[in-house]
Structure to design on (545 residues):
C-alpha cells in the first residue's frame, strides 16, 4: 500500500521539480511493471530497456501540450535522456554518429579509455568492454530509429541496448544552480548567491539569485565591468546597463554610489531575475529601472519611439554593455545614443582578438579608448565625443 | 590525441560531452542544459564563451563542440566548424542529399563554392596540415557521395 502511494507521488511529481537520481529509482522497475499504472504521466518513466518509443512519444506530446513551449518557457522544454551501452571499441564513432542522426548531445562518463566509472548507477552489470553513453534527445526525435541508424553507421553488428529516462525537467537546472559560490571580485567587493552567507559582512556584497540570466560574477567579463565601474562611479551618476542579464552591473553601480540605474534586456527571464535581485539588494524601483525591449534592431534612439518612452537619449553618465561582438557592432548607434557627450561607454563580452573590430566600429563615437584584458576577454571603454567623427 | 593525454594527466576527467549547438545561440536550455548541467558545469560561462567564439560564423549554423568536463567542475571545449555535408547542402540549396548518389544528381555546386567551403574548413584543427587543394578534393569527394554535382560555372 505504501509502495503504491510512493509511486503515485512519484508520477505526480515527475513533471515538477523532483530530484531525479538514477540509482535510487532503478529498484522500482519491478514494481512499475506489475502494478499496471494508468496515470497520464507515468508512461514517461520508462525504465525497462528496449522501450517502445512510439507509446512513450504519444504521452510526451500530451504532456508537452499542457505546457506549451513558448520562447520564455525554454527552460521547461521536455527532453529525453537515453543511456546506451556500447562496445568500447566503437564508442567514439558511435557517439558522433548519434549526433548526425538526431541526438542533441552525447556524453561519455570518465575518459572512456581507462577505468569504468559508475555512470550506470545501480545497474552495475556492465561488462568491462562496454561504455555507457548518455544522450539527450529533444522530444520530437524518434529515439529508436536514430540509435539504429547510428549503430549502422558506426559499424556495430547489433543495436546496442538502451534505457530511456524521463527528462525530469528541473533536475539539471537545480544541479547547475547548486554550483554557485560567493565570488570575490576585488578587495572589498563580493558577489554572493542568494542562499549562501557572505564571507565578509563589511565588504560591499551584491546578493544575486542564481538563475539563467548572465551575470553571476564568476565570468571574467563581469569582473572586468565591475572593476571598470568601481573606478568610474564617484557618486550621483546615471547609469545604463545595456543587456543587463541578472542586473549585477546595475546593482553594483547603485552600491558604488550612482544616483539611478537603468537596465534593459531582450530576455524576459533576465528582466524578472533582475527585478528579483534588485529587491534582494534593497534597491527600490525609483533607483533601479528595468525594461524589456524587443530583440529587433532599434530603428533610432529610443527617445523617438511613439510608444511609452522609457529613457531619453543622451541622459547617462556611464553606459556599459556586456553582450557579444555581433550585437555590439550592430547596435553601436543605439548604445552610444544614450550617453551624454563626455560620458564613458564600456563594452565587454568580447574576446581579445575581437577588440580591433570594436575599435573600428566605435572610434567615430569616442576618444581616449582604453582596453583592459583578463583571461583572454577584453573590456574596451572610451569617452563619448561631443560630435561623432564621420 | 596528444593534447588530450596532457589534460588527463593534469586533471581527472569526469566526462566527455559532444553537442551540436547553433553558432551564437547557446542557451542554458535543452539540449545544452541537461547535458552540461548533470556534470555541474557553469552553464552561463559555457554559453557566453561558446557564443563569443562562434561570432564569426553565420548565426544559427550548427557547430559541433566537444567539451571535456573535469572532476573539479571546470571544463574545456573545442569547437569544430560545421560538417562539409551541411555546407554543401546549403550551397546547393537542398535539404538532403540525393537518394541514389552516383545515379541521380540532387543538385549542383560550382567550383567557387567548393573553394569557399575548403577555406572555412582549413581553420578546423583537424585540417590544418592539409593543403587547400587536398581539402578541395575531399570536399568534391563528399559531394559525390551525396549526389551533388560539381560544375565549373552555373549554367
Amino acid at each position: 500500500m505504501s509502495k503504491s502511494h510512493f509511486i503515485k507521488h512519484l508520477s505526480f511529481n515527475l513533471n515538477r521539480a523532483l530530484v531525479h537520481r538514477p540509482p535510487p529509482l532503478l529498484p522500482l522497475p519491478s514494481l512499475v511493471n506489475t502494478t499496471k499504472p494508468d496515470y497520464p504521466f507515468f508512461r514517461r518513466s520508462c525504465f525497462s530497456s528496449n522501450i517502445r518509443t512510439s507509446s512513450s512519444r504519444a504521452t510526451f506530446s500530451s504532456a508537452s501540450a499542457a505546457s506549451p513551449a513558448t520562447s520564455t518557457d525554454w527552460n521547461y522544454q521536455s527532453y529525453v535522456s537515453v543511456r546506451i551501452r556500447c562496445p568500447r571499441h566503437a564508442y567514439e564513432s558511435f557517439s558522433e554518429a548519434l549526433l548526425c542522426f538526431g541526438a542533441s548531445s552525447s556524453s561519455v562518463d570518465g575518459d572512456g579509455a581507462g577505468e569504468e566509472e559508475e555512470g550506470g548507477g545501480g545497474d552495475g552489470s556492465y561488462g568491462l568492454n562496454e561504455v555507457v553513453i548518455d544522450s539527450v534527445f529533444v522530444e520530437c526525435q524518434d529515439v529508436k530509429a536514430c540509435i539504429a541508424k547510428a549503430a549502422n553507421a558506426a559499424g556495430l553488428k547489433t543495436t546496442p541496448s538502451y534505457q530511456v529516462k524521463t527528462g525530469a525537467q528541473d533536475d539539471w537546472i537545480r544541479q547547475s544552480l547548486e554550483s554557485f559560490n560567493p565570488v570575490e571580485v576585488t578587495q572589498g567587493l563580493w558577489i554572493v548567491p542568494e542562499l549562501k552567507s557572505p564571507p565578509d559582512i563589511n565588504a560591499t556584497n551584491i546578493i544575486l539569485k542564481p538563475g539563467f540570466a548572465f551575470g553571476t560574477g564568476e565570468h571574467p567579463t563581469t569582473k572586468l565591468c565591475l572593476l571598470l565601474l568601481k573606478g568610474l562611479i564617484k557618486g550621483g551618476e546615471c547609469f545604463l546597463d545595456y543587456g543587463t542579464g541578472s542586473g549585477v552591473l546595475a546593482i553594483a553601480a547603485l552600491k558604488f554610489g550612482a544616483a539611478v540605474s537603468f537596465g534593459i534586456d531582450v530576455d524576459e527571464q533576465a528582466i524578472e531575475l533582475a527585478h528579483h535581485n534588485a529587491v534582494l539588494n534593497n534597491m527600490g524601483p525609483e533607483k533601479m529601472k528595468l525594461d524589456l525591449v524587443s530583440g529587433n534592431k532599434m530603428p533610432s534612439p529610443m527617445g523617438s519611439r511613439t510608444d511609452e518612452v522609457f529613457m531619453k537619449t543622451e541622459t547617462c553618465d556611464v553606459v556599459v554593455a556586456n553582450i557579444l561582438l555581433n550585437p555590439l557592432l550592430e547596435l553601436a548607434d543605439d548604445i552610444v545614443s544614450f550617453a551624454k557627450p563626455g560620458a564613458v561607454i564600456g563594452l565587454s563580452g568580447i574576446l581579445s582578438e575581437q577588440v580591433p573590430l570594436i575599435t573600428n566600429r566605435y572610434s567615430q563615437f569616442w576618444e581616449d579608448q582604453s582596453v583592459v584584458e583578463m583571461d583572454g576577454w577584453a573590456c574596451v571603454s572610451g569617452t563619448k565625443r561631443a560630435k561623432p567623427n564621420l | 590525441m596528444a593534447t588530450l593525454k596532457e589534460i588527463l594527466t593534469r586533471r581527472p576527467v569526469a566526462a566527455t560531452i559532444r553537442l551540436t549547438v547553433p553558432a551564437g545561440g547557446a542557451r542554458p536550455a535543452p539540449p545544452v542544459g541537461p547535458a552540461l548541467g548533470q556534470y555541474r558545469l557553469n552553464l552561463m560561462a559555457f554559453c557566453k564563451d561558446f557564443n563569443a567564439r562562434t561570432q564569426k560564423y553565420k548565426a544559427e549554423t550548427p557547430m559541433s563542440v566537444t567539451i571535456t568536463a573535469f572532476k573539479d567542475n571546470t571544463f574545456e571545449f573545442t569547437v569544430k566548424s560545421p560538417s562539409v555535408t551541411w555546407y554543401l547542402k546549403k550551397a546547393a540549396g537542398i535539404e538532403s542529399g540525393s537518394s541514389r548518389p552516383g545515379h541521380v544528381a540532387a543538385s549542383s555546386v560550382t567550383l567557387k563554392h567548393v573553394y569557399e567551403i575548403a577555406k572555412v574548413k582549413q581553420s578546423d584543427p583537424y585540417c590544418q596540415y592539409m593543403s587547400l587543394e587536398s581539402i578541395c578534393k575531399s570536399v568534391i569527394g563528399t559531394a559525390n557521395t551525396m549526389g551533388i554535382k560539381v560544375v565549373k560555372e552555373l549554367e
About this structure: Chain B touches chain A at residues 8, 13-20, 24, 27-45, 47-48, 51-53, 55, 59, 64, 73, 83 (CB under 8 Å). Chain B is about 40% helix and 20% strand. Helices of chain B lie at 2-10, 32-37, 43-53, 84-92, 111-122, 132-146.
